[in-house]
Amino acid sequence: MALMKLLVSMCVAITAAANSATNKPHVWLIIADDLGYGDLGYTGRSSVKTPEIDKLATDGVVLGHYYVMHCCTPTRSALHTGRYPIRFGLQTGVIPNTSPYGLNLDEKLVPQYMKEQGYATHAVGKWHLGIFTWDYTPTFRGYDSFMGYYGGSEDYYSHKNSGIDLHLDVGKNCGQNCSISLIDLAGNYSAPFYAERALTILKEHDATTPLFLYTPYQSVHCPIEAPKEAIAPYLHLHPQRQVFAGMLAELDMAVGRVHQGFVEKGMDSNLLIIFSTDNGGPVGSRQGRPAGIGCATGSQNWPLRGGKGAYYQGGVRGTAWVNGPMLHSSLQGTTNFELMHVVDILPTIVDAAGGDASSTSPHSLDGVSQWSLLTEGAASARTDLLINIERDHPTTAPSTTGGCNGKPQYAIIKGKFKLLVGGGGLPNQWYHDDIPTNASAPVPEGGCIVACKPSSPNGCPATPQIQVFNVIEDEEERNNLAENTSLVDELMAIVHKYNNSAYVQALSVTSPKETVCPYNDATGSVTPCVKYPPTN
Question: Of 128, 159, 167, 341, which one is the catalytic site residue?
Fold first, then answer.
């Protein structure tokens, strides 16, 4: 009898454990690269057709008051750690391949948290969190597998930057003598084979095990390249926008294919999808426009101000949405204007998985779980957020005379108000790139080349030292409220709160330059430094 009771209790425990694993949602985190605020079809501001993404976005909840960092590495590091990049020195810009640093190895990343909750973890696409040594690469940081490129950008067909940067890493700590250089894929456009890799992961996955799939697509970062058949429907657009439209169409098809893979696997009934850009679209330096960070691709952020590299809404108000059957019914099919930041993604998905990231993090988190917001329709778990602090090395076009875009720079949001101190960076005007070649659409003001001069022949206004905007009622940031001194004082208190917290000087400033590593091996493949063995 005692033996029978023991066997029954063991069966109950095993069943409970199996049900617990099965009930955890599968999580698919999609990152689009350099996607502008007005690029997707569902926004109503773009002539590019994105039916697959539009359907998922409009069936879910669009995040209308959600913020990312101003460029790539800062956002990806914030997402992976749940911490502002000022905590570990990645607040300024991207990590060049030749730089001897990456996201600190003592930081705990999303896949490591998800592994603790019993998840399989896979990444497909762009990494850009460090390539200097193998232990900065994805399978040393918690991913079961990685297919993609370690650096920040490369050709869509040859997959080259300084060398061929396309790898398949399968298994924990898959580095030297394990990582496979996918040189045979040269000549193939990236979006379809990234989708194919994700589908392979799904086909091989045991659906009773919860899955965390991270797909940071190359699209729609420069260089501006797309298959001719993807460009063909958009020949009526501006020449640069034509190619961009083809790039975005390829991204849309890739997202649709992977989603269909979840459906065919029977995993969609318990699937949480989070989609985000890493920053606003780059308006670049073509046609006399001011250079931000990155090259102009034809992306647009209209009607938002600025673009990639700036702290204006066009640079940091992220295009994002969430989809899944667990969403509260009041949110489905709506745009939600509760305050959120990319650092919130980590604690939110760990909460969804049944964990508490703050209790197992080696560091204090800046992100907060927004799971109650998504599943119960609750208010945001935050009242303010940090866009960035850059004390020593402004990331966006400082004035040579020490004027309004000089250092230091501070940017915060409290409620519906944004405060910019030291200039919001460049680009700082309004641009509309989705115009037909016959220029029949209205072209807003623009063309500011120097941000800080009091006046210029094209009428570009000076950028004040202090700028305050109501970004809900004035999303275009045209009405500076800085004359409201009591409001400025209230917002400056938030600046002081963050300015008095932990801050690490930008690694791009403090790190020496490396001229040897990473290097190209005998096949021409970009390879992390082997002269520095992994510490793991």
Answer: 128
